[in-house]
Recover the amino acids of this structure.
């Protein structure tokens, strides 16, 4: 008998009506969900627990807790894969060699267990002492049809090492199910399969064994990549498409793969699944992408070859909050998990607008039969006509805190010359209200703050030839706050500056 999972709404497609129902509630960041042929749903929570849910009865139980795990911010129990025939479960989790929670003490490990019907046992370490951090640990795990394990590990913040083959971070690893290294890996004796990734939280096999991965960009350029043997995906030298001069130069020297699609502003592209069946014909042969910051499910329609994304549809935007993972069951129903209780960066407060309160959930989307009737009064979602603007609009939400700190810093460092109203002074100091320098190219503005400015410039049609001091002694955050204030005060209205952007420009100037 099928349990009555409470219906929360519907999705109306061209020809299909889909039902969304709640499968589990009361969760705390369900990080990875996997569906099994036998009608079971496996899921992890970041705090280290593994659960098994029987979709036929609706009953779920916790079957394992990773011992000694510390879960804070974005580390804890992360990727999982299940091999139902062999009854093997693979888990990736972080641990600290010495408790204390400093970055350099965090490591992670990929482990295989046997499921005895009740709990996990016979732990076998597949990869140990992997580099870890409080952020960017990845991860996802996927098993190919030919029995190889693919595992993504984030750059763990060690950006300079990502393109080094000897460093495990920022890579896709490929292993045999017993942890040995396949003989046909691109680098003999190494598990590294592909490199140049930042923080990949989505892996999915499509048609003909093609492997797709999502990757979080920094401030720009979230990506979906077609992951191939030995592929270099460019991070940190290439962000998104190979379109800037220095990216082209790098790509021509070190053969670099372009993403199939990239998003700026970023949407925090996370869990990924391939929709294989004709159960929902409108979505057949597409990648389903869970987005956290984007608070939506994206349908990425692939072409016949699977080498190209033809179009993107957005569903459920800002309806259920952040979405972390997504999985497709063999009957064509789709399961996904919310991630509203997780830690996420606070420098973009508008991300909180509309974020649901309360515990996280796992929900299901399934196609309704022709004679099934929707419940009157529940919401019916359709394809969104546009994506919410995450950087350039809606930025007023709760930004006051940022503006307050920026305003104070402005008073200390800038007011003496540019004045309390940003008007500057006749012929000597240019105004900073509605000037192209302030609201235009962000990179140029940041570089001006770091390097100072001298010589002739034109501001709002007037010439100035004075000197503006450099402020490279201020921290990334201080500069970001000042510039965010500047771009949202004195009549200016432009996107915020975040510390990561200052960091990138600072690094660029040093080269
Ligand atoms: C000692 C005086 C002085 C201080 C302090 C100062 N500036 Fe300036 N600023 C100038 C001058 C002079 C120029 C024009 C430089 C030139 O002529 O090449 C300028 C130019 C600029 C410009 C580009 C032109 C425009 O008006 O759009 C910006 C933006 C700017 N300043 C922002 C700031 C900010 C933000 C601070 C505080 C962190 C600051 N300045 C502190 C003197 C100052």
């Amino acid at each position: 008998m099928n349990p009555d999972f409470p219906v929360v709404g519907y999705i109306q497609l061209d020809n299909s009506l889909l039902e969304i129902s709640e499968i589990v509630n009361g969760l705390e960041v369900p990080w990875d969900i996997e569906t099994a042929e036998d009608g079971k749903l496996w899921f992890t929570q970041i705090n280290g627990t593994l659960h098994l849910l029987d979709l036929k009865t609706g009953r779920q139980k916790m079957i394992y807790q990773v011992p000694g795990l510390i879960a804070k911010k974005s580390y804890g129990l992360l990727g999982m894969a299940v091999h139902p025939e062999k009854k093997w479960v693979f888990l990736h989790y972080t641990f600290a060699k010495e408790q204390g929670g400093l970055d350099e003490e965090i490591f992670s490990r990929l482990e295989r267990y046997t499921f005895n019907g009740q709990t996990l046992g016979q732990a076998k370490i597949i990869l140990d002492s992997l580099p870890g951090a409080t952020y960017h640990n990845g991860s996802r795990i996927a098993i190919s049809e030919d029995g190889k394990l693919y595992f993504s590990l984030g750059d763990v913040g060690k950006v300079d090492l990502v393109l080094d083959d000897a460093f495990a971070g920022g890579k896709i690893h490929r292993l045999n199910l017993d942890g040995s290294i396949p003989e046909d890996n691109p680098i003999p004796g190494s598990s590294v399969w592909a490199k140049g990734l930042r923080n990949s939280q989505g892996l999915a096999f499509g048609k003909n064994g093609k492997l797709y991965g999502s990757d979080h960009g920094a401030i720009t350029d979230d990506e979906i990549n077609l992951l191939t043997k030995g592929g270099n995906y460019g991070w940190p030298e290439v962000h998104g498409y190979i379109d800037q001069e220095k990216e082209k130069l790098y790509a021509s020297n070190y053969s670099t793969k372009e993403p199939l699609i990239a998003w700026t502003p970023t949407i925090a592209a996370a869990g990924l699944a391939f929709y294989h069946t004709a159960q929902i014909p409108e979505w057949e042969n597409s990648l389903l992408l869970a987005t956290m910051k984007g608070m939506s499910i994206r349908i990425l329609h692939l072409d016949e070859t699977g080498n190209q994304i033809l179009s993107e549809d957005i569903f459920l935007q800002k309806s259920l909050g952040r979405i972390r993972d997504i999985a497709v069951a063999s009957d064509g129903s789709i399961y996904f998990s919310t991630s509203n209780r997780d830690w996420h960066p606070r420098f973009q407060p508008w991300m909180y607008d509309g974020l649901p309160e309360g515990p996280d959930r796992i929900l299901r989307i399934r196609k309704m039969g022709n004679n099934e009737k929707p419940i009157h009064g529940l919401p019916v979602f359709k394809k969104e006509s546009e994506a919410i603007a995450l950087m350039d609009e809606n930025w007023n939400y709760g930004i006051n805190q940022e503006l307050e700190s920026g305003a104070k810093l402005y008073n200390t460092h800038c007011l003496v010359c540019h004045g309390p109203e940003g008007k500057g002074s006749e012929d000597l100091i240019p105004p900073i209200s509605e000037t192209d320098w302030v609201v235009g190219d962000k990179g140029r503005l940041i570089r001006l703050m770091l390097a100072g400015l001298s010589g002739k410039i034109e501001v709002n049609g007037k010439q100035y030839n004075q000197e503006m001091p450099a402020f490279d002694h201020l921290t990334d955050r201080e500069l970001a706050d000042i510039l965010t204030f500047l771009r949202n005060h004195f009549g200016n209205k432009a996107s915020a500056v975040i510390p990561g952007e200052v960091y990138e420009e600072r690094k660029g100037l040093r080269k």
